[in-house]
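Revision sheet: structure tokens.
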Amino acid sequence: MMTEANEQVYDGDWQNDQKYGMGQMNYADGSMYNGYWADDCRDGVGQMIYADGSVYHGEWSNGVKHGRGEMKYGTGSVYQGKWENDKKHGKGKVTEANGVVYHGDWTEDLIQY
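Predicted:
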């Protein structure tokens, strides 16, 4: 386990003095990531629980959401689909808290009608 200067706490695997493999990071703002790491970045499959109560479970690349994943927002809405560079991008579906469902293609967080 390692506590960093900014009060982040990491418990997991290391390789060449970098987070690598399976690990959990507790962030100073109350967020928590549990999943795979490569070269000190979230990379592979993992789950992030954000301080606002939102939860993302899915693929990461170089520290950002990238690939398939599901985000459950604190508002009650849920996005399931593709991500690219931390933004909804590609095929996806949003289910709003009131039950309204949107299917479609997304480009940089915006649904394309």
